[in-house]
Amino acid sequence: MSVRERRRIELNPDQVLFLTGPSGKLGLVKTGHDMQIFIGTPEKEEIVVFLGKDDLIAVSAFESGKKAEKGILAMMYLLKEFSSPIIVLPENHPTSQRLKMVVACGDHIKLDCDVQAGTHPEQDILCACSELSGLDIDAVEDGVEIEGNFEQFRMDKLDQY
């Protein structure tokens, strides 16, 4: 049985934290201000997630490298600056297999490689690559706390988008 490490990483709203595995990448950013994310559901409902300044936006890409980072940064820009809505697909929707990135936001996010991408309006679970699966991420006042084992991470300025 492996011991689950819990790390606290300082993260400011003008920074992005990248966690990297061989088959995927996750970007985390603090909202930095109160905001709303709108989620369209298959039932033609709209869910509104109210976020505080310390909450997180997480973008999971199913590949790694510079292309994934550019996509993650672009998605963060659309969400933070334009309040772009998130669309939730119905369970077993064929488009789910074609998604290159998925998003979750809030104060707690669990990464799981065994969930169907794009079908979770709850926003506390996010499909991720197998190497990052099982991580529990909590927003804290001055950053994030991540429980679980991960090796590669890097901090960048968010103004790169």
Biggest sheet overview? 5 strands, mixed
Counting DSSP H or I runs of 4 or more residues, the number of helices is 1
Computed CA radius of gyration, to the nearest angstrom = 15 Å
Mean pLDDT value: 91
Strand content: 35-45%
Give the overall shape, derived from the CA principal axes: globular
Structural class: mainly beta
The low-confidence parts are: none
Describe what you observe in this structure.
A hairpin with a 2-residue loop joins strand 2 (15-21) and strand 3. The protein has 1 helix and 13 strands. The chain has one domain. It has 161 residues and is mostly beta strands. The longest helix has 17 residues, at 66-82. The model has no long low-confidence stretch (mean pLDDT 91). The N and C termini lie far apart (41 Å). Helix content is 11%, strand content 43%. The protein has a 5-stranded mixed β-sheet, with no helix packed on it. Strands 8-6-3-2-13 form a 5-stranded antiparallel β-sheet, covered by helices on one side. The protein has a 3-stranded mixed β-sheet with strand order 5-4-7, with no helix packed on it.
